[in-house]
Amino acid sequence: MKDKIVNIAVQVLPTAKDKHPYAIVDEAIAEIAASGLNYRVTPFETVIEGPYEEVMRLVEKVQDACYKASADSLMCYIKIQSRAEGNVTISDKMEKYDS
Asked: Is the pTM here over 0.90, yes or no?
């Protein structure tokens, strides 16, 4: 699985006394954007496409970004889609919906 392309959906739910959660989520998304990996932001989570180990390292960086952006606590939910043979891509699942 290490070398296969997977999709990992990450949802961060930060809380902070002095900052709106959306501002913290924006920092998490900025970390994802800076990674250079393919990703798609949705209203509830962000889906990241890439090699399993690289994406999991990014999930850790996303959590760190939330704390650097003043999160007091954080719930982080991830979902992983992989295949025994072949890769999982965002476009495989979404191309029929893209216009």
From this structure: yes
50: left (phi over 0), alpha (psi -120 to 50) or beta: left
Secondary structure class of 21 (helix, strand, coil): helix
CA distance 84 to 74: 32
- Write down the mean pLDDT value for the chain: 95
Count of structural domains within the chain? 1
Report if residue 70 sits inside a domain. yes
- Domain ranges, residue 26: 5-85
Q: Are 12 and 28 in contact (CB under 8 A)?
A: yes
CATH number, domain of 69, equals 3.30.70.930
- Radius of gyration over every alpha carbon of the chain, rounded to an integer in angstroms: 14
